[in-house]
């Protein structure tokens, strides 16, 4: 039987999302399909699978991404699906611990991809916010002022997420100076 | 002036090069590295994929022609890779010997 759960995670909440998916897997709900804010699960033995997610440098349909996903499948992982540039993979727990990254530099590099995405979104929202506020105050237009404020609020939220991810990446880089 | 400086290899790269003294595919490398290190080193697939691509670019390993009916690509260490591996083993040996000598001297001083 399939179960659909709708849930929202921010781009910087990857660990939280993985922990939630692990919690579901422990209850016997294994992820079989993903869509925007939509998770489809199938009933399996509790803890049968471990799920991981990764933000790829390119679209999952890009040939380089396809090669990477094929490589993951060679190592026993099953590709579940993707949302934007995020891919979801799972592997049977009986094959042992399942991680996509096992060293500090590849973890830091992955966080760098998330930071790049957040930077682009922040610049876009800051631009849209300032533009709308200038138009709104100049003409004046309440709609533009409201849109401008919303864009700046979103930018503030993205900045909060950026700082959280940046802090983790910096900590990993500090560790790298000692351990790798 | 030629720069002969070679930074220390990461543990992942070290075990990948050691594993590829014989042809192996991705999952084989992961299993071999774990076995060689007595279960201490577990290479995750994403990390391994990035490292393999870097090593291919550097010419330290090469991909073997894919066999029919097999989706799994196999890799093998190159002569350049073997030279790098030997240099790393020599560096690690020197590192361990120096460490042991200093620790022994320290112990002797403490015993006096």
Fold topology:
The complex is a heterodimer of chains A (180) and B (112).
Chain A: E1 2-6, H1 14-26, E2 29-35, E3 38-43, E4 49-55, H2 63-74, E5 77-83, E6 86-92, H3 104-138, H4 142-179
Antiparallel strand pairs in A: 1-3, 2-3, 4-6, 5-6
Helix pairs in contact in A: 3-4
Chain B: H1 11-19, E1 24-25, H2 26-36, H3 45-58, E2 61-63, E3 74-77, H4 79-111
Antiparallel strand pairs in B: 1-3, 2-3
Integer average pLDDT of chain B: 90
Total strand segments of chain A:
6
Largest sheet of chain A: 3 strands, antiparallel
- Write down the Rg of chain A: 20 Å
Describe the structure in your own words.
The complex is a heterodimer of chains A (180) and B (112). Chain A is built from 4 helices and 6 strands. With 180 residues, chain A is of the alpha+beta class. Chain A folds into 2 domains: 2-95, no CATH class; 104-179. The longest helix of chain A has 38 residues, at 142-179. Chain A starts with a strand and ends with a helix. By secondary structure, chain B is mainly alpha-helical. Chain B is elongated and about 70 Å long. The A-B interface holds A 54, 68, 70-72, 74-77, 96-97, 99-103, 105-106, 109-110, 180 and B 10-12, 25-27, 30, 42-50, 71-73.
What is the gist of this entry?
By secondary structure, chain A is an alpha+beta fold. Chain A is built from 4 helices and 6 strands, in the order βαβββαββαα.
Could you list some keywords that capture this structure?
heterodimer; A: 180 residues; 2 domains; 3-stranded antiparallel beta sheet; 54% helix; B: 112 residues; mainly alpha; Arc Repressor Mutant, subunit A; elongated
């Amino acid at each position: 039987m399939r179960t659909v759960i709708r849930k929202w995670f921010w781009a910087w909440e990857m660990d939280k999302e993985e922990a939630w998916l692990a919690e579901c897997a422990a209850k016997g709900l294994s992820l079989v399909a993903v869509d925007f804010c939509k998770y489809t699960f199938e009933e399996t033995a509790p803890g049968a699978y471990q799920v991981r997610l990764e933000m790829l440098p390119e679209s999952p349909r890009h040939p380089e991404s396809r090669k990477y996903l094929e490589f993951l499948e060679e190592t026993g992982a099953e590709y579940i699906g993707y949302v934007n540039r995020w891919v979801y993979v799972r592997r049977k727990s009986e094959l042992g611990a399942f991680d996509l990254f096992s060293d500090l530099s590849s973890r830091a590099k992955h966080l760098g991809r998330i930071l790049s995405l957040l930077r682009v979104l922040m610049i876009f929202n800051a631009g849209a916010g300032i533009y709308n506020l200038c138009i709104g105050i100049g003409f004046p237009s309440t709609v533009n002022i409201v849109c401008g404020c919303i864009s700046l609020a979103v930018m503030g939220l993205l900045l909060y997420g950026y700082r959280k991810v940046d802090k983790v990446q910096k900590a990993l880089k500090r560790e790298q100076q000692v351990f790798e | 002036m030629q720069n002969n400086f070679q930074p220390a290899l990461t543990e992942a790269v070290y075990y990948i090069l050691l594993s590829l003294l014989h042809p192996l595919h991705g999952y084989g490398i992961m299993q071999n590295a774990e076995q060689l290190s007595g279960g201490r080193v577990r290479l995750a697939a994403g990390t391994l994929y990035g490292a393999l691509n870097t090593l291919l670019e550097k010419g330290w390993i090469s991909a073997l022609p894919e066999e029919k009916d097999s989706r799994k690509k196999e890799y093998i260490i190159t002569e350049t890779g073997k030279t790098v591996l030997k240099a790393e083993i020599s560096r690690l040996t020197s590192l361990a010997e120096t460490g042991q000598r200093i620790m022994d001297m320290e112990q002797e001083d403490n015993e006096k």
